[in-house]
Design a protein that fits this description.
Chain C: Residues 112-254 form the Cytochrome oxidase subunit II copper A binding domain. The complex is a heterotrimer of chains A (590), B (234) and C (281). With 590 residues, chain A is mainly alpha-helical. Chain A is 61% helix and 1% strand. Chain A has helices spanning 28-33, 38-68, 78-114, 122-144, 172-201, 214-245, 269-302, 310-323, 341-367, 376-399, 401-407, 411-441, 447-474, 491-524; strands spanning 256-257, 260-261. Chain A has a two-stranded antiparallel ribbon with strand order 1-2. The two termini of chain A are 22 Å apart. Chain C folds into two domains: 2-64 and 77-108, no CATH class; 115-280, Sandwich (Immunoglobulin-like), CATH 2.60.40. Chain C is built from six helices and eleven strands. Chain C has helices at 2-20, 33-63, 79-108, 158-161, 245-254, 258-280, and strands at 115-122, 125-130, 164-166, 171-174, 179-185, 190-193, 200-203, 209-213, 219-225, 238-243, 256-257. Chain C starts with a helix and ends with a helix. Classes of the chains: A mainly alpha (590), B mainly alpha (234), C alpha+beta (281). The interface between A and C is large, with 115 and 100 residues. Bound molecules: protoporphyrin IX containing FE (HEM) and copper (II) ion (2 copies).
Chain lengths: 590, 234, 281
């Protein structure tokens, strides 16, 4: 190893100490409810996201019941189906995954992993959560509004989103949805500023960028992207609110709706699609990049081996983040936009596949010659790779403009994005919960419940979404509550649909076991100790478990090495913590 | 989407410049050891609040760049008719400019510890900003009096929408500036007010620039300018 | 351990499923066989990559699972390996992209001799318009739509008088003649989708979109709407029949033109409306 000598005695003072006065809660309320501690906020975010996610899960059962057994459930009318579908999609993408990865994992892990006592703007951080909660409540309120929630699809395409042919279109449903999204974006921006500035300015001494764990890189890059992409959704929502509430014509052309001439004139529905997907495509990576980062750390820790090609991994994260802003129109190949855009966007889309593939190679190469402990987090990480590779490869079909033409708007698309941004990131969420739960509570999650949960979820999810591609290949369009008698759809497709529904219900119920485990293990789990996985990163080196307010003891840890010193030749143990000066270093912590 | 892409290219350039200095090519596994070996890649000494505001302003920039993108996209449709620009906007622009200058003076005063100048500058900054907002409201009234309502003509809809968005940002800034004023007039020492004054000044400068760009777009000069560039190129 | 086995089963199962499943696309009825070929080529490449990655993973899990006293190797990176993998990936991606773009070029280049056929969508039915004897479609405008002029054809435009209007009924097309489908919607987004033709395109109110194809097989094909358009979306069906030249001509003769449908009595009223709309714009 190269011996690096210090540049001289003038030490840089740690940026964070002294600069930021740690906030001290005085009452139960300010400690657990209106808390400014990122760890409490993280748990609030995660709890809320999981609660609303449960609603989305139940909605998916209802949709699957309708698709598997059409005509059996009278209350699932086409209106209801579209409302379930819209709410399910929107909740899963925004209110569950985005909130959980950034608001949940971001809040919990960033300060701990970079060696900070808290986020840099704790008060703003608290506001962020409460605005998020408000956004969720407004969303939930739309279920009880006259006319019900909007059924416009999670893409909310105008004109139909604000017309009477769509459930909630002329009632409060769509307005509540737009308001909720606007609130979410405001709340997220507050949180996002925290995550970014904490990574930049809150790092402890010695924590250079290249010593950051990939989890932090992933969440950091995703947050930067989200900060720049969400404004597009914000603009689209505000303009649609104008069209809906005061009758302006941003997106609304002259149309004849149900035999009536509308007052609108000249607007452009395609403009909405550009704005929406300018947000929507980066959104895919906003969910994926944190998952990429976290899974890298899970694999490395549980295979007791450094992540293969750390530098490449960092470059790939940054590169994907930048490139994902110039691929948005691959969602619009058949939207009627100028056909020549197809050449450009197909090319950029397939280029993005290269850094993504490199990440996959590096995960598998990390397993090579490792010492693989098949713990539950590791199992979920493996499941992530399988589902992500599967979904990523079908993305090549849909990104390659002409191949997309027959497949777009079919169940193939539904299968593809569930695999790549539904199942795969959720696998990482589960892996991460099993991995960090011991740090958050001091106890391990129950092993047997965990393994049961893993097997049912992994195999079940694959059985739901792999065959679904073939339903789409047959030609079945998406967003169809029932197929009716359609000549080109053979009866066997209906049988397949029944099978998928049964698989979906099974997977759904396995999640209840997981929820039960979360509560049960708080009291009955095995004691975990400070560092049950023998991991190197700073969150495992805290003053206690769960980490106390302020995270670390009197002094902040000082970082001497990167996050992946596993199985270093000659070392006494198979891991060296980041704050371990090691035998070779002259001079202890300053 | 050209406006937002240009804006993002700028952001990317800044980010790339910064990343280029972070030793992304180094091999961290070979560099275990003393903490202070690479001071330039550690957290900088910049105050977090300043960086935070900088990042926030980038988000604000993206937001308005997107509004401008939407404006340009909508503009090419057949029914587009330019909206009349109330003359008052020139006066308002002057007000906002004054506010920006005043806050810059406030920064200087705070650094020099001149209590009276600081108070005065902060007050002028706040009052001229309020005057700007009032002026914008009057401009709206002018338009409405001329029969231009938000719904009929898309250029007018954009005018109301974009000025409202910009105004909301000024109002948000005024909350902080108002608090700074109260603190200054209650007799807090300038040294303690330096940071918040600097933050206000930075925010106002950027919002001024944003307003100038928006003004140019709404008045149609930006489109003319683009046309001229196109002609020069072809 | 079980996981290594399951990973192998995932690969084997997926490949077998693909090979044996009865679920495959409908027999093609247009000239877009190239699209199918590109799709099949993509299946081969991606299938190979998927199998390789997952099998390699299964092997690693089996071979390097934790055993007492085992220690992982220490290998931070390998520039050579990474460069090779990047290169191979780039070549594979290019191998899919190049034919894709080539076929897209054809897809967006409408042949000169294609006849125009207009499809008009509304919640939730399909109507059609064919150029009459003059071979030209008249202009149209959503503002002109009313009960007597459901497609909003401009009564002032002489090209439009002989246009054949097929309101909410089946469309017929002659076999082996390239057609350019002009797509128009009068309310919300729809998408004209016939699985057997492979091509599809959104219909956007306020603009006319298009795609082209040549029907290559006679028969009756179902039209579906492929862009969410409200509660009736799933039920918005139609029929396209591809006929021999003869059948097509006899069908065409039974259809009415715009002029016939409106009749002299209504023409005056429609024309007044058209003038009013023109003045407004
Ligand atoms: C076991 C879990 C899940 C099941 C069974 C399920 C099922 C479904 C079904 C049946 C649809 C409607 C398909 C259609 O008719 O077009 C749908 C749509 C959707 N789902 Fe899921 N889903 C699950 C999990 C997720 C997750 C985790 C995500 C997060 C990304 C997600 C995101 C979406 C989106 C974005 C839509 C599209 C909604 C729309 O078309 O507007 N789903 N899902
Ligand atoms: Cu439709
Ligand atoms: Cu439809």
């Amino acid at each position: 190893m190269v011996d690096v000598t210090p540049h001289g005695a003038d030490l840089i003072p740690p940026a964070e100490v002294g600069e930021m006065e740690l906030y001290h809660p005085h009452s139960w309320w300010t400690k657990y409810v209106f808390s400014q501690d990122a760890k409490v906020i993280a748990i609030q975010y995660s709890g809320t996201a999981l609660a609303i996610g449960l609603v989305a899960l139940v909605l998916s059962w209802l949709m699957r019941l309708q698709l598997g057994f059409p005509g059996t459930f009278d209350f699932i009318t086409p209106e209801a189906y579209y409302q379930f579908m819209t709410m399910h999609g929107m909740i899963m993408v925004i209110y569950l995954l985005t909130a959980l990865f950034l608001g949940g994992f971001g809040n919990y892990l960033i300060p701990l992993m970079v060696g900070a006592r808290d986020m840099v703007f704790p008060y703003v951080n608290m506001l962020s959560y409460w605005i998020y909660l408000l956004a969720v409540l407004v969303l939930v309120a739309s279920f009880f509004a006259p006319g019900g929630p909007t059924g416009a699809g999670w893409t909310l395409y105008p004109p139909q989103a604000i017309l009477s042919g769509t459930p909630g279109g002329t009632g409060p449903g769509i307005i509540l949805m737009l308001v909720s999204l606007i609130l979410f974006i405001i709340g997220f921006t507050m949180g996002g500023l925290n995550y970014v500035v904490t990574v930049l300015q809150g790092r402890t001494r010695g924590m250079t960028l290249m010593r950051l764990p990939l989890t932090v890189w992933g969440i950091f890059t995703a947050t930067v992207m989200a900060l720049l992409a969400f404004p597009a959704l914000f603009v689209a929502c505000v303009m649609m609110l104008f069209d809906r509430a005061i009758g302006s014509s941003f997106f609304m052309p002259a149309i004849v709706e149900m035999g009536e001439q509308s007052p609108h004139n000249g607007g452009s529905p395609i403009m909405f699609q550009h704005l929406f997907w300018f947000f929507g495509h980066p959104e895919v990576y906003i969910v994926a990049l944190p998952a990429f980062g976290i899974v890298s750390d899970l694999i490395s820790t549980h295979a007791r081996k450094n992540i293969f090609g750390y530098r490449m991994m960092v470059w790939a994260i940054v590169g994907i983040g930048a490139l994902s802003f110039v691929v948005w129109a691959h969602h619009m190949y058949v939207s009627g936009m100028h056909p020549y855009f197809g050449f450009f966007f197909a090319t950029t889309t397939l280029i993005i596949a290269v850094p993504t593939a490199i990440k996959v190679y590096n995960w598998v190469l990390t397993l090579w010659r490792g010492d693989i402990h098949l713990t539950i987090p590791m199992l979920f990480a493996l499941a992530f790779i399988v589902t992500f590779v599967n979904g990523g490869l079908t993305g090549l079909f849909l990104g390659n403009v002409v191949v997309d033409v027959p497949l777009s708007d079919t169940m193939f698309v539904v299968a593809h994005f569930h695999m790549v941004m539904g199942v795969a990131p959720i696998m990482v969420v589960f892996g991460a919960v099993y991995h960090w739960y011991p740090k958050m509570t001091g106890r391990m999650l129950n092993e047997w419940m965990g393994r049961f949960h893993f097997w049912v979820t992994f195999i079940g999810a694959y059985l739901i979404f792999f065959p679904m591609h073939y339903v789409g290949l047959v030609g079945v369009p998406r967003r169809y509550p029932e197929l009716g008698d359609t000549a080109f759809i053979p009866p066997s497709v209906h049988t397949l649909n029944e099978f998928i529904t049964v698989a979906a219900l099974t997977v759904g119920f396995a999640q209840l076991v997981f929820l039960f485990n979360l509560f049960w293990s708080i009291r009955h789990g095995k004691e975990a100790g400070d560092n049950p996985w023998r991991a190197t990163t700073l969150e495992w080196q805290t003053a206690g478990t769960p980490p106390p307010h302020g995270n670390f003891g009197k002094e902040l840890p000082v970082v001497y090495r990167w996050a992946y010193d596993y199985s270093v030749p000659g070392a006494a143990e198979d891991f060296i913590a980041q704050n371990d000066p090691g035998p070779a270093t002259q001079g202890g912590p300053a | 989407m050209s406006a937002i892409l240009i804006f993002l290219a700028l952001v990317t350039a800044v980010a790339g410049w910064w990343l280029a200095r972070q030793r992304l090519m180094s091999k961290p596994w070979l560099e275990a050891g003393p903490v202070n070996a690479f001071p330039e890649t550690e957290a900088s000494l910049l105050h977090p609040a300043k960086l935070g505001l900088g990042v926030f302003l980038a988000v604000v920039g993206a937001l308005f760049a997107l509004f401008i993108s939407a404006y340009f996209m909508r503009m090419v449709y057949a029914d587009w008719q330019a909206a009349p620009m109330p003359r008052l906007l020139w006066l308002n622009t002057g007000m906002l400019l004054l506010a920006s200058v005043a806050l810059q003076c406030a920064v200087v005063a705070a650094h020099k510890g001149q209590v009276d100048n600081l108070r005065l500058a902060l007050l002028v900054g706040a009052l001229t900003s309020v005057a700007f907002l009032g002026g914008q409201l009057l401009a709206w009234r002018d338009l409405a009096a001329g029969g231009y309502f938000a719904a009929e003509n898309p250029a007018v809809s954009f005018f109301y929408l974009i000025t409202a968005m910009h105004g909301l940002h000024i109002i948000g800034g005024l909350l902080v500036l108002g608090r700074t004023n109260v603190r200054a007039w209650r007799g807090e020492r300038p040294a303690k007010l330096t940071l918040t004054t600097e933050l206000c000044a930075m925010y106002w400068h950027v919002l001024l620039v944003v307003w100038l760009v928006l003004f140019a777009v709404l008045a149609g000069w930006a489109a003319d300018f683009v046309d001229i560039c196109r002609q020069l190129l072809s | 351990m079980a996981i290594a086995l399951v990973l192998v089963l995932v690969v084997v199962g997926s490949v077998l499923f693909h090979a044996l499943s009865p679920w495959w696309w409908t027999p093609i009825a247009s000239n877009w066989g190239y699209i199918d070929s590109t799709l099949v080529a993509t299946f081969w490449i991606t299938g190979a990559v998927f199998s390789a990655v997952v099998l390699f993973m299964a092997y690693c899990v089996y071979r390097f699972r934790h055993k007492e006293g085992q220690k992982a190797a220490y290998e931070p990176e390998s520039r050579k390996l990474e460069s090779w993998l990047t290169l191979v990936t780039a070549v594979g991606v290019a191998a899919m992209l190049a034919p894709g773009l080539y076929v897209w070029k054809q897809f967006v280049t409408v042949p000169k001799d294609a006849t125009e056929v207009e499809v008009v969508a509304q919640q939730w039915q399909w109507s059609y318009r064919l150029p009459g004897a003059d071979g030209k479609l008249g202009t149209s405008n959503a503002r002109l739509i009313n009960a007597d002029n459901p497609l909003g054809i401009n009564p002032e435009d002489p090209n439009g008088q002989d246009d054949v209007v097929v309101e909410a009924a089946d469309l017929h097309l002659p076999i082996d003649k390239p057609v350019k489908m002009l797509l128009r919607s009068i309310d919300v987004l729809h998408d004209f989708y016939v699985p057997e033709f492979r091509a599809k395109m959104d219909m956007v109110p306020g603009m006319v979109t298009y795609f082209w194809f040549t029907p290559t097989r006679t028969g009756t094909f179902e039209v579906l709407c492929a862009e969410l358009c409200g509660t009736g979306h799933g039920f918005m069906r139609g029929i396209v029949m591809v006929d021999t030249e003869q059948d097509y001509t006899s069908w065409l003769q039974q259809q009415s033109t715009f002029a016939q449908l409106t009749g002299p009595a209504k023409v005056g009223a429609l024309a007044d409306q058209a003038k009013a709309v023109a003045a407004m714009e």
